[in-house]
Amino acid sequence: MIATLTEDCTLAQKAAILRFIEGYGLRVHVGEAGSTTVVSVIGDYEPGMAESIGALVGVASVSIEAPLYPFVAREARNAPTMVRVKDVVVGGPEVVIIAGPCSVESEGQIDRIAAGVAHHGAVLLRGGAFKPRTSPYSFQGMGEEGLQLLAAAREATGLGVVSECVAPEDVPLLNRYVDMLQVGSRNMQNFRLLSAVGEQPKPVLLKRGLMSTIEELLLAAEYIVGSGNPRVILCERGIRSFDTATRGILDISAVPVLKERTHLPVIIDPSHAAGRRSLVPSLAAAGVAAGADGLIIEVHDRPEEALSDGPQSLTLEGFGETMNTVSAIGNALGRSLATL
Ligand code: PEP
Ligand code: MN
Fold it and tell me: Ligand 1, from 98, 185, 189: best to mutate by most atoms within 8 Å of Cβ?
């Protein structure tokens, strides 16, 4: 149920309306859209509730059509959400480039790649320490040692670090080391994990499930924001379809669709969508052209030796060239790449 307040509703009237609703054990989410204030009522309520709320002073109208995702819907805020990750803002005018290996593999590897991507203009470093692998026999990540190496790379380069959390019980550990926690595709509907990352304050990079609709992605984000953490960045990373020519199908329309439906920032992962290095620059360019707030790109200094996702990882040189392309596209649209 949504109650729209009158334009001349006073602060005292608004407070009384919220007290009334909360008095029935319901939760409220107050959104501002222009001069309109919208109160979303969350929870199970009696049929007569809508009339009771509609009769309160300061309420203009009540619609019983429940918003699916009141916290993350575009209407919930009158401005886009900007998410600060260490020294960088995602969702503002600048395009943010996150880069790094699929997995942290060794001290030398992460240090070389961190220095390389920073040199070419990346502002955040990615690197998996806990890897969700399809096969139990594939490299599963270095665990806490990988997080320590990421933290050391942050000290050396100034880049904020992003790493995936695969289990609710690991959230405090990730929180100690990283600047942003990633929830991967395979865990987009791990609802206990979503709540757990929502109960801590660091930003969350939420990747779209490989078989998930945009609505399901928004509902997953709703779990996080509804648990208390508004710092969510959405990521389109390719969905599964019938064509095997690419690893995934990059749903480029997800960018404008999400921009219509939510105030949260949206980034593109061209690497997992492509599955092959040669395709990554085109998909990265398309992401920026479509209006994404950033990109997350896999880069490895020796992709042929990578322990995961080598075939889709750009070399450092390839990353430098891709940066030139996406920078030119950003400039054509009046957006520059974020710098440190
Ligand atoms: C990754 O970022 O390396 C990863 C596993 O991504 P996804 O969850 O999109 O497959
Ligand atoms: Mn990967």
Answer: 185
By alpha-carbon position, which residue is closest to atom 6 of ligand 1? Answer: 184
Q: In the beta sheet, which residues pair with residue 27?
A: 42
Indicate whether 72 belongs to any domain: no
Region class of 98: left (phi > 0), else alpha (psi between -120 and 50), else beta: beta
- Mean pLDDT over the full length of the chain: 95
Output the six-digit token pair for 207. 């990747």
Could you tell me the pTM of the whole model?
A: 0.90
Q: Write out the residue range of the structural domain in which residue 312 sits.
A: 83-332
CATH number for position 19: 3.30.70.1140
Ligand 1 binding residues, C-beta < 6 A: 102, 128, 132, 184-186, 207, 237, 269, 272
| Residues facing residue 37 across a β-bridge | 32
In one-letter notation, the amino acid at residue 263 is H
Distance (Å) from CA 73 to ligand 1 centroid: 25
Q: Is residue 76 part of a domain?
A: no
Low-confidence ranges of the chain (pLDDT < 50): none
CA pair distance 130, 136, nearest whole angstrom: 13
Among protein residues, the one with the nearest Cα to ligand 1's atom 4 is: 184
- Kindly list the protein residues that place their beta carbon closer than 5 angstroms to ligand 2, a single-atom ion: 102, 309
End-to-end CA distance of the chain: 44
Q: Is the domain of 318 the same as that of 178?
A: yes
